Amino acid sequence: MKGYRIRLIRHGMTEANTEGRYIGVTDTPLSAEGIKQLYDKTGRLDYGSVQKVYVSPLKRCKQTADILYHDAFTVELGLLAEMDFGDFENKTADELKNDPAYAKWLEGGLDNPPPHGESARDVVNRCYEALNIIISDMMYEGFTDAAIVTHSGIIMDMLMCFGVPKLSPAEYRCEFGEGFVISITAAMWQRSGAFELLGAFPPEETEEAED
């Protein structure tokens, strides 16, 4: 049965990331250091080639996709945008530490959104819809190898909710410009709404064997 291989890749670093700010829908670009890091990684690590890139419409993701897969056909998909943090957007945990609404949000739960923001359930539903669209598009186009350039929260939600085998939340974290490779078959997705997690991406550097 035909399988579809997808790389889930987190965008590069921004100034707001460095400052520890919640940047969901805030459309901040990559920092100079973030751009440098990505180019450094493309020189050291094997990102391979893909037939299509599905990308969040936010600048940091589009810039990342252009650096990693400059020659690939790219499609923006709004469903891949990061969670909307509402009133907490562009603020740090320290700035919010005395806000009762922030304390309530930190209690967690699928239906406990930040004020004027998006709930975890909404984000998971978006992830499912995005994967449906991407898998259907790959099947229609006959593509078997693609990349999704998105956000750490989206990647984590996809893996936690739909990936097998199941790992601990900490194991779903990834560095800037890195992520995971997954494999999907139409039957597995339609039957159980699941995909197989193959491992981290890109592969770690390996030293050449000595002669």
The H-level CATH homologous superfamily, spelled out, is Phosphoglycerate mutase-like
For this structure, the CATH topology is: Rossmann fold
Residues in β-strands, percent: 15-25%
* Tally of discrete structural domains: 1
Overview of the molecule:
The chain has 211 residues and is an alpha/beta fold. The chain has one domain: Rossmann fold (3-Layer(aba) Sandwich). The chain is built from 8 helices and 7 strands. It has helices at 15-18, 32-44, 59-68, 93-96, 100-105, 120-141, 152-162, 186-192; strands at residues 3-10, 52-55, 74-76, 145-150, 163-164, 179-185, 195-201. It has a 7-stranded mixed sheet with strand order 3-2-4-1-6-7-5. α3 links the parallel β2 and β3. The longest helix is centred in the middle third of the chain and has 22 residues, at 120-141. It starts with a strand and ends in a 10-residue tail after the last strand. The model is unreliable at 206-211 (pLDDT under 50).
Task: Explain the layout of strands and helices.
Layout: E1 3-10, H1 15-18, H2 32-44, E2 52-55, H3 59-68, E3 74-76, H4 93-96, H5 100-105, H6 120-141, E4 145-150, H7 152-162, E5 163-164, E6 179-185, H8 186-192, E7 195-201
Parallel strand pairs: 1-4, 2-3, 2-4, 5-7
Antiparallel strand pairs: 1-6, 6-7
Helix pairs in contact: 2-3, 6-7
